[in-house]
Amino acid sequence: MTTTHSSIHKLNIENDLRYLQLLSRLFPTIASASTEIINLEAILNLPKGTEHFLTDIHGEYEAFQHVLKNASGSIKRKVNEIFGNTLRESEKKELCTLIYYPEEKLQLVKGKEDDIDDWYLTTLNQLVRVCQNVSSKYTRSKVRKSLPADFSYIIQELLHESSDDPNKQAYITKIVSTIISINRADDFIIAMCNLIQRLTIDSLHIVGDIYDRGPGAHIIMDTLCNYHNFDIQWGNHDLLWMGAASGNNSCIANVIRICMRYGNLTTLEEGYGINLLPLATFAMDVYANDPCTMFAAKQRFADKSYPEKTLRLIAQMHKAITIIQFKLEANIIKRRPEFGMDDRLLLDKIDYTNGTITIDGNTYDLLDKAFPTIDPNDPYKLTEEENELIEKLHKSFINSEKLQKHIRCLFTFGSMYLVCNNNLLFHASVPLNEDGTFKDVTINNKKYSGKHLLDKVDQLVRNAYFDEDTSETSFAKDYIWYLWCGPDSPSFDKTKMATFERYFIADKGLHKEWKGKYYELRDKEETCINILREFGITDVEHAHIINGHVPVKTIKGEQPIKANGKMLVIDGGFSKAYQPETGIAGYTLVFHSRALQLVQHEPFESRQKAIEEGLDIKSNTFLVEFNSQRMMVKDTDKGKELITQINDLKKLLSAYRLGLIKEKN
Fold this sequence. Notes:
It contains 28 helices and 17 strands. By secondary structure, the protein is of the alpha/beta class. A seven-stranded mixed sheet has the order 7-3-2-1-15-16-17. A hairpin with a 2-residue loop joins strand 8 (about 415-420) and strand 9 (about 425). The longest helix has 28 residues, at about 310-335.
């Protein structure tokens, strides 16, 4: 290096000196900094970890957990690659089921195996081979951090030593036989199976809508809160629950109404300890003689079979909370005229004497004409009993420790969108004009569009939950409700949510919710490229937008891959309520070092059948994009971070060698 270059280099280091001094606390010597550089340079040349994408899970916890356990078929593919024709298909199926459900499968095996020690010996060796395969793309350090504490040393030895080595053969054999002889085989097998599951998927992306319809959103959230690496892009159903946990009473009423509609009381009562007794008491009193026919639960999607008497009570509770919801929403609409939702004020359009409603000059008969809690002269006023009820429900939501824990998890690991490895993830839409330009959406008298709109929305959602009560917080809480059902909401983006019409009016023309221009224009490659660039993605050739929200009706020939591969819509009907429309049971995406693959799933029968009969989800895999060269860590966003760290460490080395920073013992 010339004197001039040396001086410039020294000057640059001096400019970074404060940061480098902080960095020197982590790497206090030339040796420690050098070792870290070598380590990071090596990591850059490992294969990229596998990413797993799911969306619109809607409380279907059994299907969700199974897809998570089998990694959308990735584990089955690994087992086939490793054992090929050396194992029968039935043996490979048994091994896969064991990996998915080790505790339950072990109990079944021990009930039928004559020589359990021999089975242990064979199975342990098979699991070691699978584990060696799935851990091979990670550093030993990363694998070590994933290991269960009880078996960390033993697993490390088994993973990194080969029984083919004559010097180590007896050593490895003795480890396995001793595990069996001291009755630790069950615990060791469970630990190995869980490790295989963990290492098969490096990161999990949930592209919105964990909540509503299905019975186990709280179970899904428990799983996620303990998952090793995940992120969430909030969907409108998630935002609804976040609004409820923030104390928005309209969101609370909507959450309860949807649970009643799908006969899903488990999430509310057992999952979150929400006290529904006040609602039941109120509903039985007010609607004692009302059959509430239009409010019968969708029993085929319910979390359990209810007796007739309970179904009648659910219908009464369903109607009671629905009327309260319409009143509460009207208060927001009137206090926030900027939301532009006056068309949702329908209770004052009802002729309560004749049981009709007039909308846009047309009069329709109502399917349900009993409104004992509505004053025709002031239809949006809550009765004294309704006020008391909503106050009790409000306290129940605010004080639910489990709910608040899960919502904080949504905030910690969630956001409106994510840019990751050239993929842009958001649940529903980025509002567009007819010509494909980004639509201006006014929030608090200021216009936002494109990326800036989603950033502003993200900020408002956080303000609603975390900020102290102020006028700004009050607006933010109202805006969370708007995000659930507002026409310019990026998490909804439809002309209306036709809740009233679907309950009370037979004319299906009024049930139609017209989608925003985004859903029409996203089929065009040019539109998708513009959106990708708006969010800072410049290398658009291999970039994709990944969405959910609108189910892809495969049964009608709709395709999840749009815009010449730039758009992937992976809502294929995880929710049982959507499966008659889609014809399948959901899509997932798997992005590994060699390819991006779309996986189409058939309905999942049950966890019990998966364990007892080895019935895996039937899935078809489609290649979206193949990498001619294997994608390495250096090709990912994480790789860019590591390269920056390497450059900083090299500056630290120079600072040590130039004497600008002294080494510490």
